[in-house]
Amino acid sequence: MTGANERSKTIVPLYIPVILAYLFSGIPIASYIIAWLGSLFIFYWTWFSPSKYYNEDLPIYKQIMRPIYLTQFVFAGFMCVTSIFYFMDHLGYRYFTQVEKGLQFQGSEKTYIIAQCQRLSLLAHAAIVTGIILKIKKEPIQPKNYTFYSGHNYLIGLSIISYIIGFICQYLPGLIQVALPIMAVAISCGAVLLVRGVVEKNLNYFLVGAFIFIGNFLNASLSGYKEPIITNVIILACLFLPYYKKAIIWSSIPVAYILLYFLPTYNTVVRSSWNGSVSAEEARTEAFETLLGNSNQDEIEETNWSFLTNRLSEIDMFTTFVAYVPAHHDYYGFEILEDSFINLIPRIFWKNKPNTEDVSMKRVYDAGVASRFSSVSAKTRPVVDAYLSWGIPGVFFTMLIYGLMMQSMCNLAEKLFGSYELGCIIVFNSLFQQLWRGNNFEFMINNIFYSYLIMLALCKLLIMFKIIMPKFSVKEA
């Protein structure tokens, strides 16, 4: 009963800004601001307030890669907080400077839709956190297996095993979805070894970790996508934080500024290699020259503002869907969910299975978010698919389940692999990394299902290699 009371003291206040935002729905600008600030309130309430509810087996700064901290930060940060740039642009501002005549306080029809989307995002944020808190265990999670440590040498073996399996799976038909999360395990091992090498001044750990992690980071810099670079920076910052708190906290703002200011232009130039006119390495060199050239300042600012307003938060796409459903199309009901479960059938058993990308893009084309003749892939996010399926109730219950499932998978990983480091940092945040931002139902449910199977198989594999050992083996020894 005490635990339920403690949880309720944390959960109930999360919905105060949600209620306020809906009470002011007739004044869209005020409603948007309340909803936007509401997410900041949820961050504060669940991280810093006296009523915060968390697993007390570790100090907070040593467990920030658990869902209540890291996943909430990334998911709600992108879904809720970054929309401020789009909203400012809508009101006629550019980099905090008014460049167009502002709207009246009542706003326009578009303002009402933006505010509605922000309210839905806030409701989703509160629901996700509710689900996480309901599954948090304050007492230490009892491991099913005993982790066999020999310093951190087990990480070297795990990284090699994961990398080899992931590399092989990349070239086997239908196993690319297995390859990516397994490769992520190897990269996480590399990041942990790199940090341990620096902290413990262990040259072997540092060299192995640097080879894996920095090699992956350089490869990510050639991809033309922002997510791999940002993900690598976040992982490294989270791992260094317990040892260099002040340095990481003080450097977070300038690093975030650099990423948000320079990364969009950098990726735009690197993507010029996609048409084959130049190599990825040449495009990367050209990108650095563009960023370092004083004459390119206007180009950088133009590219970055477009990125901040249209691609960082994706709220523009959300507003298009909200205007489309249910005014021009009924709620989808279980249609999207049914397609998602059909997608779980491996293609090896169903050669004519519909292409998942084509199925998920159909509603994007129908709503007018993207043209069928364009090469863009504008996938929806969980909150969007939840709204398209069942409206406001769908957003709440879907995101509640999302939070419950997220924390349950983290709990299971720590139980199976015997520790926060191996279970949460390496296994959970590698295999279920897609949950950081979410994806459309078709791809996300597929990722959750197969990542769960991979986690169980990986546990068996590590027991076989005696990296982790069952309790009975330790007692018998």
From TrEMBL:
**Where does the chain cross the membrane?**
20-47, 68-88, 146-168, 174-195, 202-222, 249-266, 387-405, 448-468
Organism's domain of life?
Bacteria
Q: Which keywords belong to this entry?
A: Membrane, Transmembrane, Transmembrane helix
Q: Which residues form a coiled coil?
A: none
- According to UniProt, the name of this protein is Oligosaccharide repeat unit polymerase
